[in-house]
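Here is one chain, start to finish.
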Amino acid sequence: KFLRPDECTRLMAMIDICAQPSKAYDTEYASGFRTSFSGDVDPNDPFIRSLERRLHDLLGIDQTFGETIQGQRYEVGQEFQAHHDFFHTTQGYWKGENSGGGQRSWTAMAYLNETEEGGSTDFYKLDLAIPPQPGALLIWNNMRPDGRPNPDTLHSGTKVARGTKYIITKWFRSRRWA
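Its structure:
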């Protein structure tokens, strides 16, 4: 496991402090596409700085390429429908994201707890469903070796049927993140 139980508990408390209704580019919260709560944890907190260093060291990615860790909380019935973590370059937001560090090349996502039922992360093109497992870290490359987006990373956070799901996510850019 990447995270110890005490670290998971600490992160869940931090998420509860910063969580707001989640947003997605060009998609209203009320549409039901992304119905969780999320928020950036304090990047200046020594615990978060240490955690970020562990992630950067594990992946061998310079710290300047990493976004702030985001925490997410999913309650019963909440989900994040099928999506990619890379930016779609034909969308209006791309110009700003491109100048702010470019593509989200890698995703690191850690589960902080188990749910009683539901809440798996499903990768549709890989026929893979991963249930929440406290402390487990998932890492995937959003881009192909030639720099094009990897469509096989299509995934969702499925609806939680019973319990509450907590995760943290850290995205890494193709260039220095600004």
